[in-house]
Amino acid sequence: SAGVGNFVSISPKSNQDDYLMTRFDYTISPKDTLFVRYVRDTALALTSQPNGSTVANYWGEADTTRNHFVTVEEDHVISPTFINLSRVSFLRPYENAETTTPPVPALNNVNTPGASQNTLALGQKLTLGPTNLVPYRMAEQTYQGMDDVIWTHGSHSLKFGALFAVVDDFTNQGNTGAQWTFNNILSFLQALPNQLAASLPGHLDNYRDAVSKQFMPYINDEWKVSRKLTLNLGVRYEWLSNPTERHNRLTNVTDLLTNTNFVPVPTVMPNNPSTRNFAPRIGFAYDPFSDHKTS
Fold first, then answer.
1. Rounded mean pLDDT of 96-105?
2. What is the mean pLDDT of residues 202-224?
3. Looking at the DSSP assignment, which residues form a beta bridge with residue 67?
4. What is the DSSP track for the chain?
5. How confident is the model at residue 76 (pLDDT cuts 50, 70, 90)?
6. Predicted model pTM
7. What percent of the chain has pLDDT over 90?
8. Cα–Cα distance measured from residue 169 to residue 138, given in angstroms and rounded to the nearest whole number
9. Fewer CB atoms inside 10 A, N or C side of the chain?
10. Cα 123 to Cα 57: distance, rounded to the nearest angstrom
11. CA separation (Å) from 288 to 95, 223, 224, 233, 291?
C-alpha cells in the first residue's frame, strides 16, 4: 500500500551585489566644462527552489546581472543667458539565468530533440524539474545622444532640446523542454497527463535581436507673467520606431481567419502607434500676496 504525506524543507538563498560609480570632472575653459560618469552594477542570486514547490530543493538556479552605464557631457556657456548641454550615453544591462544542477535522466526520456529538461507538474502542490523560465539570456545596448539649450530672455526661461537613441535588444529564451501537467498524483501514476506545453520539433529557435530607434524633441517655457503669476508651458514629442529583428526572424499570425500558420513579418507591430505621441504640459504658480510665502 502507498500513501500521500507532506514534505517540508527549507530553501536556502544567497544574494551578492557589487556597485561601482566613478565620475571625472574637468574644466576646459571658463565657458566649457566636461564630466564623465561610469556605473557598474553586478549581482548574483542563488536559489535552490526556483519553482516555489520543487521537491527536495534539487533544482537550483543562478541569476547573474552585469549592468554598465557610461555618460559623457560637455557644458558650454555661450552667454550669461544662453547655455548648451551636450551628452552621449551608452547603457548595457545584461541578465543571465541557468540551472545549477545536472539534468535528471528520467525527465529527459520524453524530450524532443534539441530541447532542454522537462518539467512535471502534479496539480497545484508539486513540481518536478527546473523552472520553465530558464535558461535565458537578455542583453540590451542603448546608444543615446542628447542636446539641451537653456535660454533666459526677459520674463521667459526657455529650455528645449532633443534625444536620439538606438536600442539593440537581444533575448534568448532558452527553455525548450516540455511541461507535463497532471491533475493529481493518481493521474501521474497512471501516466495520464491532462496538459502538455512543448516546442514543436524544428521550432526551437528562441534567439531574437530587436532593433529600434527613438527621437524625442521638447520645448518648455517658464514664463513669469507678473509678480504674482508664473506659467509653465511645454510640449514633448516621443517617437519610437516600430522594432525590427536584425536577422529577419519575426513571425506572426497576420489574419486569424485565413492564416493556418505563422508567417514572416517585417516589424513587431503592424502599425506604429507612436507617430502622434505628443505630450503637452501646462502649469502655473500664483503668489496672491507677492511675498514668496504662499502660492
1. 76
2. 89
3. 41
4. ------------EEEEEEEEEEEEEEEEETTEEEEEEEEEEEEEEEES-TTSSBGGG-S-EEEEEEEEEEEEEEEEEEETTEEEEEEEEEEE-EEEEEE-SPPPHHHHTTPPTT----EEEETTTEEESS-TT-SEEEEEEEEEEEEEEEEEETTEEEEEEEEEEEEEEEEEE-----EEEESSHHHHHTT--SEEE-PPTT----EEEEEEEEEEEEEEEEEE-SSSEEEEEEEEE-EEPPPEETTS--EE-S-TTT-SS-EE-SSSSSS-TTTT-EEEEEEEEE-TTSSSS--
5. very high
6. 0.78
7. 48
8. 8
9. N
10. 18
11. 54, 17, 14, 20, 8
Q: Report the distance separating Cα 286 and Cα 231, nearest Å.
A: 9
Q: And the C-alpha cell for 291?
A: 511675498
Q: Which amino acid is at 247?
A: H
206: buried, middle or exposed (CB in 10 Å: 19+, 13-18, 0-12)? Answer: middle
Instruction: Please give the full DSSP string across 189-207, using - where no structure is assigned.
Output: HTT--SEEE-PPTT----E
CA dist., res. 206 & res. 130, Å (int):
18
Grid cell digits, residue 171: 533575448
